Amino acid sequence: MSLKKIQNYINGVLTDPIDGHYLDNHEPATGLVYALTPESNEQDLKLAVDAAEQAFPAWSNTPAEHKAKVLNRLADLIEVHQNDLAKAEAIDNGKPITLAKNVDIYRAAANIRFFAQACTQYSSESHSMENVAINYTLRDPLGVVACISPWNLPLYLFTWKIAPALATGNTVVAKPSEITPMSAYLFAKLCIEAGLPAGVLNIIHGTGQSIGAPLTIHPKIKAISFTGGSNTGTSIKQATANQHKKLSLELGGKNPTLVFADCDFERTVKEVARAAFANQGQICLCGSRIYIERSIYQRFTQALVAEVNQLTIGDPLLAETQFGALVSQPHMEKVLGYIELAQQEGGQLLTGGSQLEMQGRCAGGYFVQPTIVAGLSNSCRTNQEEIFGPVCTVQAFDTDDQAVSMANDSAYGLACSIWSQDISRCHRLAKKVNCGIVWVNCWLLRDLRTPFGGMKASGSGREGGLEAMRFFTEPKNVCIQFNP
Ligand SMILES: NC(=O)c1ccc[n+]([C@@H]2O[C@H](COP(=O)([O-])OP(=O)(O)OC[C@H]3O[C@@H](n4cnc5c(N)ncnc54)[C@H](O)[C@@H]3O)[C@@H](O)[C@H]2O)c1
Ligand SMILES: O=C/C=C/C=C(\O)C(=O)O
């Protein structure tokens, strides 16, 4: 069987990489190579950046209504093709197809629609100095911007960046993860069908080393919106330090979940399990450090284990599957290594702990049991390092202050969830936890208008809603004095 070759999308055309180099693209559920991803080089990159540069004057002067029309057409096409896109995402990433359809693909269309509308409503501020002068603030697009995205929510996080970048009049060179390139490739075809002008969006495939790093330091790139690991974020910061580019870095997490005795018990068990294990724990927002008030610790952990043990684990392509495969063999090995470490550090497995041997089509897949570890202190590596897989720890706390200090005892600061019916307590703690996103009695509930991002090693800058519109534009104040 000949393998499907993914193509770059440069200047409005699907193109093969110039020197013909490809990487194997594995299906995580089977371990088999099913497609080839371009390992593009700097010549491909030059074509993409030049195309974006040439497209910038016309696109940046396109009326908002027209940009909105094209973007809405793209969102419509995502919806028309939602089943195919969800299937592609499940094959490429290993995530359950139902999750792909209801979260990844649904939200990809929603992102594009949101920013299509936002650009028609975005207006600049003015500041009157009574009868002396008026200031108004221009918000101009930046030029050619880079959008670099990871493998865990491939199309969703891709559109998370390119939708606001395009809506504000920038042109884009985007690099999806080389591990999950398929949905971005299919998306390129939809861009052509939607009539997005050539060069406005260019999608270039390849590794971080061959394309990611050269893209970030390219002198024509004015801003970088990056989602990925904290170490990669640091490299980008260092590599671009003397170039004065605008940077938005959405990085890793090691998110605390705080469960109080007065929570709505049954619902909290279900949601805390979902927060820890959705997408096999491969969401930067997953709650992987679970802190439980001591009076309910035993009952809650037992119920959590029971909840996790009844998850339907299996072929990502089956509608009933709730828990699929990890994204790659190296990632699976990393996660299994952490499970080993957790035990060396003195942790006890309450459930899980091993690779799962599957039957039939999925026999060679990268499946790891959802794993819950107890008995570890906060300071051990298992509780300090991002595992980014189906592994969480449980610990007991006695007081609100102790819960906050355990939550904040981390290099990361992305998200926290708090489960209690005492809303005053939730409000008090929400102010005290050091992270960019706090969910109270919910997790991953998203309003696209809200600021999204983290503190400390979880990144700098915010995207989402107005924050994204601001990131992708340069404010320029114009002060006009009236005739004295
Ligand atoms: N904060 C968030 O919103 C958020 C969302 C999703 C994932 N993440 C984080 O992403 C990580 C998992 O994703 P990953 O393994 O794909 O991350 P990664 O950092 O390895 O890769 C992310 C992207 O950056 C590219 N890249 C790699 N090295 C580069 C370099 N030197 N310069 C420029 N680009 C480079 C990759 O090819 C990929 O496209 C986890 O740490 C997770 O927490 C964060
Ligand atoms: O893995 C990271 C998940 C990011 C999610 C979002 O950006 C979002 O929910 O908007």
Automatic annotation (TrEMBL):
InterPro entries recorded: Ald_DH/histidinol_DH, Ald_DH_C, Ald_DH_CS_CYS, Ald_DH_CS_GLU, Ald_DH_N, Aldehyde_DH_dom
Keywords, alphabetical: NAD, Oxidoreductase
Matching PROSITE patterns: ALDEHYDE_DEHYDR_CYS (PS00070), ALDEHYDE_DEHYDR_GLU (PS00687)
Record GO terms (molecular function): aldehyde dehydrogenase [NAD(P)+] activity
Pfam families: Aldedh
Active site feature: E250
Signal peptide: none
Coiled coil: none
Domain Aldehyde dehydrogenase intervals: 23-478
Keyword Coiled coil: no
Domain of life (superkingdom): Bacteria
PANTHER family per the UniProt record, alphabetical: 2-AMINOMUCONIC SEMIALDEHYDE DEHYDROGENASE (PTHR43720)
UniProt record similarity statement: Belongs to the aldehyde dehydrogenase family.
Name of the featured protein: Aminomuconate-semialdehyde/2-hydroxymuconate-6-semialdehyde dehydrogenase
Organism name: Marinicella litoralis
